[in-house]
């Protein structure tokens, strides 16, 4: 039952009686099938749409048939999804996108406008956020970059172990098209890194385990970072992609014995880039220092070859070489401010993505409140189904009732909303007035996708619980 309530819950903004920041409630279901809460600094989270249906469902199990309750739950869930789908409105304009982003960012209009610019230019899938404490203002730029399905050779190179990724800023790039079996190759390439205080990115076909051990020992006591990427794929495709990467970074592809003993190979054959983000599955190289003329010439060669070939791999190489990434540089003074802005940007980005896919609905629990009216029209065949529908109906009203209660307003003001025929009318507890929801832009993203994906999960949970021997065991199970 807990999972069902969470699947129907949308983001509910509550009035904070302490006068600091608005209170939010967001429940989500991740891909690992675990119910999670998302926390934001300086806010208080409360389960709004969970406790009431949980308690009512367990009370009903003692006087109603589980099969009938299940049927009632399903009927109500389907009706709510259809109603939310009808209430949802698509967002298309820059102002609408900025408003959704601002609302999700706790009223930060600057972040809302930056997110709107990202979506306006179609960069939402290629956005990388960088936090710079020295920056005086936020910046949004587009830089050349390439994403490859080549992962890290070893988890040892993680710089952010909690995210399981390696991030290098201002890195030199060594591209080696064969297997590295001698650690002197990497040591020689790391000399300019130590002199200039830069990191080193090594892209090679493979690296011997002994070499990995030597490199791990060498870089343990140094401030410079190293990252080794294992290039996968067939030999011809791998070498071609390495050549593309060399052009993008302004370096050269080295082969075994190609001048590695020369003291002049380093400045001539090492490439460079502004940022590297690598995981065990892929690597993103941003801001390569290659000449724009060389990159364009390489792209023209690929376009000419594509006309004479039917291979999709050439098109993929062209897309990677000619593509790029949106870099959002966010200023922040101190860890607390950086962490807060990071959460705001993440929430705003996800909210706008959901709003563009599923639309927006009236906020502050109004959409769920009006959706509960549709359940009065459902035709049930027995009393057990009716009880299941009533449980869902009461749960949908709890969000709006709790908002009014937290503002010190009697719940009768919410009852007046249910008496209205218009679904555009809402209540502003801060002013104590009835307002037009769409006119005052009190909206939130529609969570129809979550409802459709998990609206029946609670049924399996109830079936498991119903086989218990006592009510206390049932409560522990859910």
Automatic annotation (TrEMBL):
InterPro entries: Cpn60/GroEL, Cpn60/GroEL/TCP-1, GroEL-like_apical_dom_sf, GROEL-like_equatorial_sf, TCP-1-like_intermed_sf
Alphabetized SUPFAM superfamilies for the sequence: GroEL apical domain-like, GroEL equatorial domain-like, GroEL-intermediate domain like
A GO-annotated cellular component: mitochondrion
Coiled coil regions, renumbered to chain: none
UniProt entry tagged with the keyword S-adenosyl-L-methionine: no
GO biological process: protein folding; protein refolding
Sorted UniProt keywords: Chaperone, Transit peptide
One Gene Ontology term of the molecular function aspect: ATP-dependent protein folding chaperone
Entry keyword Chaperone: yes
Record family assignment: Belongs to the chaperonin (HSP60) family.
PANTHER family according to UniProt: 60 KDA HEAT SHOCK PROTEIN, MITOCHONDRIAL
Protein name: Uncharacterized protein
């Amino acid at each position: 039952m807990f999972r069902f309530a969470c699947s129907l819950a949308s983001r509910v903004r509550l009035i904070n009686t302490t006068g600091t920041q608005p209170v939010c409630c967001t429940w989500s279901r991740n891909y690992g099938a675990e119910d999670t809460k998302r926390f934001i600094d300086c806010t208080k989270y409360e389960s709004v749409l969970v406790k009431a249906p949980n308690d009512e469902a367990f009370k009903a199990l003692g006087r109603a048939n589980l099969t009938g309750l299940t049927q009632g739950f399903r009927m109500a869930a389907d009706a709510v999804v259809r109603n939310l789908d009808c209430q949802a409105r698509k967002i298309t304009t820059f102002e609408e996108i900025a408003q959704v982003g601002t609302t999700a960012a706790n009223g930060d209009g600057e972040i809302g406008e930056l997110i709107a610019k990202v979506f306006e230019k179609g960069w939402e899938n290629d956005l990388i956020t960088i936090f710079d404490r020295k920056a005086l203002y936020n910046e949004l730029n587009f830089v050349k970059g390439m994403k490859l399905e080549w992962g890290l050779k070893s988890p040892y190179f993680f710089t952010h172990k909690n995210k399981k990724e390696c991030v290098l800023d201002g890195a030199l790039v060594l591209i080696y098209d064969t297997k590295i079996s001698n650690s002197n190759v990497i040591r020689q390439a790391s000399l300019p890194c130590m002199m200039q205080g830069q990191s080193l990115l090594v892209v090679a076909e493979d690296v011997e385990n002994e070499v990995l051990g030597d490199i791990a020992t060498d870089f343990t006591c140094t401030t410079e970072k190293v990252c080794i990427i294992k290039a996968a794929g067939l030999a011809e495709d791998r070498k071609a992609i390495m050549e593309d990467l060399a052009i993008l970074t302004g370096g050269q592809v080295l082969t075994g014995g190609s001048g590695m003993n020369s003291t002049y190979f380093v400045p001539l054959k090492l490439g460079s880039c502004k940022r590297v983000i690598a995981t065990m599955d892929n690597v993103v190289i941003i801001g390569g220092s290659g000449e724009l003329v060389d990159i364009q010439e390489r792209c023209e060669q690929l376009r000419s070859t594509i006309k004479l070939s039917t291979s999709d791999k050439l098109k993929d190489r062209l897309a990677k070489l000619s593509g790029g990434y949106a870099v959002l540089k966010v200023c922040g003074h101190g860890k607390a401010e950086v962490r807060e802005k990071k959460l705001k940007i993440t929430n705003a980005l996800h909210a706008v993505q959901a709003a563009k896919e599923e639309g927006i609905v009236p906020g502050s629990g109004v959409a769920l409140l009006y959706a509960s009216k549709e359940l009065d029209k459902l035709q049930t065949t027995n009393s057990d189904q009716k009880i299941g529908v009533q449980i869902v109906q009461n749960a949908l009203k709890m969000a709006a009732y709790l908002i009014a209660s937290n503002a010190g307003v009697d719940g009768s003001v919410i009852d007046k909303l249910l008496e209205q025929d218009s679904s555009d009318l809402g209540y502003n507890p801060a002013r104590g007035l009835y307002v037009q929801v769409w006119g005052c832009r009190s909206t939130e993203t529609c969570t129809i996708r979550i409802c459709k994906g998990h609206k029946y999960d609670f049924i399996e949970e109830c079936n498991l619980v119903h086989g218990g021997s006592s009510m206390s065991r049932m409560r522990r199970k859910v």
